[in-house]
Amino acid sequence: MKITNPFLQGPYEPLRNECTIENVDVLGTIPLELTGTLYRSAPSAEFLLDDPNRFHWFDGDGMVHAFRIENGRASYRNCWVETEGLKVERSAGRQLYNGIYGRSEAPQKPLPEGAPEIKTVAGINVIRLGTHLLAMHEAEGHYWEIDPVTLKTLGTFDFDGQVSGMLTAHPHFDPATKEWIFYSLDNEKRSLTCFTADIHGAVTSKFAIPMSFTPWNHDVIFTAEHFIFFFGMISWRPYAEDRIPQGKSSWFIDPAAGTDARILFVHRKTGEALWIEPENSPYMIGHFLNAYQDGDKTIVDASATPVSGALKTFNPEDFYPFPLVPGPAAFENPQLWRFVINPHEGTVEHHRIGDFSAEFVRPNETIMGQKHRYGYMAGAHDLRPETRGFNCLVKHDYEGNVTRFQHLSPDYDMTPGEPVFVPHPDGETEDHGWVLAVWYDPRRNASELVILDAQKFDGEPVARIRLDHHVPLGFHGNWIADC
Ligand SMILES: [Fe+2]
């Protein structure tokens, strides 16, 4: 069968080898102050579907990639996250599971007794919580703990059984209160639960909110007072008997729900829920950059994907937080938006920033939940005829309203993943530090970790750490300074 699926080729091609590379080739000079590990998470696929052209980028198996930096040198290691579903397929020696987000159009194959009913991907994010390095998906009631050095899967992590439902892959840390902010969804029981946990991962509060619908929700943001959610038009039921077992995507459109966004504020101390339903709001939020309170207003910066077209033309499987899908699609390219909300008056205003596409938005996270000046993201700007996906990194200065772009190669498109801001150990200003991102070079069919001076964002990179193989374009990761 000829493989035409773009998510099995080029920068997305699954990587199946696990390897360790000491002393990776470096162009430039890695700052001596930079000591730690950049962990990245990406889906790969150990076994392909019977019809690989039905493979969805969000499915497959999770893999963690680690770039360790010390004394101006870099090493690299990658390793699968060994989920129960992957073990089941390894025992069978072939693909057994239908995907979660894509659709196989074939009934679920028989599974061995005791096997999990769906195979989660553990390929969205990797975060250190307390002493635990955790790989994450969003359809399980636990994370996967991995060894920070060997990257081997050690077991599961479930907050000592204090959580249930489908845990988000986007927990956030509030540096002001030293709390973790996260949530779980139980779309079969129609419930959302907001959690806080202390710095060690002990759950300190939980508030259950009844839900009248079954959203796919991917991120949460917070201010000093609230958890904030933006629910979009995609419904999600990965445990429904009439979805994945029938070869359908767990994503679907509920015509009764319409296309407008629904915004939920949950008070962090009382659990009080405040719903806002702005009219004429056909957009999806992919990720939040940050949020903060400004008097009686709440500012939310995010990447937003406008939706257009008649509802019957929407195909949720075409939703990618990425300007890639060619041809007409109900989902436009993601954009950088600022929301100004008065939660008590129920007013919501928003405006777009710039004319570029933007996703994988990140701030300097040492000030998350408080007013920020800068945002970093993957972008698409100065497009070429052959541009597919992101071709630059973007730094936006909200105070000066200045946007800077880093294309890395002036001659052709290289494709960056999510940028991660690493503060300088002696950093005194918000952008004193480095921006780290893994870029794919189509001319080498290989990837490199590029270190930018955040204050000279569009200048020459500080260092380029060049692998001879590609790291599949994935989603999220984090810098752990003392790993
Ligand atoms: Fe995400």
TrEMBL record:
It is an enzyme of class 1 (oxidoreductase). InterPro entries: Carotenoid_Oase (IPR004294), Quinoprotein_ADH-like_sf (IPR011047). The keyword Magnesium does not apply. It comes from the Bacteria. Binds 1 Fe(2+) ion per subunit. Pfam families: RPE65. Its EC number is 1.13.11.-. Keywords: Dioxygenase, Iron, Metal-binding, Oxidoreductase. Its cofactor is Fe(2+). Belongs to the carotenoid oxygenase family. This is Dioxygenase.
